[in-house]
Amino acid sequence: MDYAKIANQWPLAYSPLDITAQYRVEAEDFQVTELSNRILKEEGPHWYLFIEKTDTNTQWLARQIANHAQIDLRDVGYAGLKDRHAITRQWFSIPVEKRQPDLTALFEREEFTLIDQGYYGVKLKRGNLGGNHFKLRLRNVQGSKAELEQRLTMIKDQGVPNYFGGQRFGHDYDNIVQAERLFVSGKRPRNRQKASLFTSAARSFLFNEMLAHRVQGNVWQRPIKGDVFGFSGSLRGFIADGTAAESQRWRNQNIHPTCAMWGRGNSLSEADLADIEGQIAQKYEVLSQGLEKQGLKQERRTTRMLLPDLAWTWQDDETLVLEFSLGSGYFATSLLRELGQIDDASKV
């Protein structure tokens, strides 16, 4: 099955714009800063390091930290994977109960800078962060500036569909192909991290297919029959109760429609939404049943991504800088795809 071709057909929420631009022409064009939700202390069993890195992926830096600290790679903690072709600032943790390692040599390298540090009681685990702040520079912008700014204003007010970004699926969507092989053969890779990556890709693909169905019907941002509400950044959902308090939360954009993150157990969805989710699960039966056999439980993910702090400035007639914050697990590419043909120059 050609998963890349399927993904290319996932619909936009807004009418296409005749806009072209590039990002990641240089590493500084894509900057991501993790927003921590921890208060660090002056001592503790885990040393937390806030590191700025340039043109380096998270896993490679984690190996460098492990080598310099002379610890097992599994003991290095981080909250999420960050893009290589970028300037990113993120937290890492290492255990220091037995000894305090000397990382001086690591930070003598130009591509790494230690910004902050502190101590905490437990290892930093995947997903444990408050979100990310993005600063993106679009270069060689061609098209109507007025239309582009009008679209940005609309997005700031209404948000965009909460698709998983292409980086979740690997090159040419190969992570889903690998997930299929895993589910059919039952043979897990020796590398547990790869197995988790493949499983996550399959689950994310099913969600995007369900969301695409809602976008096609223009109901990604409003409830349908049998809908399940959820909170931004949460994997839990709840059935509408029709109370005044719930209505107020909806008007305040505190709750959102959801689609299933597929797994074992009964979905909370009913009626129209249950039909959508059931059709997608049946269409991709190898993926849906494989996820259930892996023991994953049914969860939810919101269908819209809000960007209330979205801001933009023109550096010159062809260079636009965007700034915004997103919760953990949300993708900046979900915004960019609604602005026109915005190409990643690092992949050319």
Automatic annotation (TrEMBL):
InterPro entries: PsdUridine_synth_cat_dom_sf, PsdUridine_synth_TruD, PsdUridine_synth_TruD_CS, PsdUridine_synth_TruD_insert, TruD_catalytic, TruD_insert_sf, TruD_pseudoU_synthase. Signal peptide: none annotated. PROSITE patterns: TRUD, UPF0024. Gene3D superfamilies: TruD, catalytic domain, TruD, insertion domain. Keywords: Isomerase, tRNA processing. Residues 159-309 form the TRUD domain. The active site is at residue 83. One of its GO terms (cellular component) is cytosol. It catalyses: uridine(13) in tRNA = pseudouridine(13) in tRNA. It is an enzyme of class 5 (isomerase). GO terms for biological process: tRNA pseudouridine synthesis. Its EC number is 5.4.99.27. One of its GO terms (molecular function) is RNA binding. The keyword Isomerase applies. Responsible for synthesis of pseudouridine from uracil-13 in transfer RNAs. Belongs to the pseudouridine synthase TruD family. This is tRNA pseudouridine synthase D. It comes from Bermanella marisrubri. The lineage of its organism: Bacteria, Pseudomonadati, Pseudomonadota, Gammaproteobacteria, Oceanospirillales. The gene is truD.
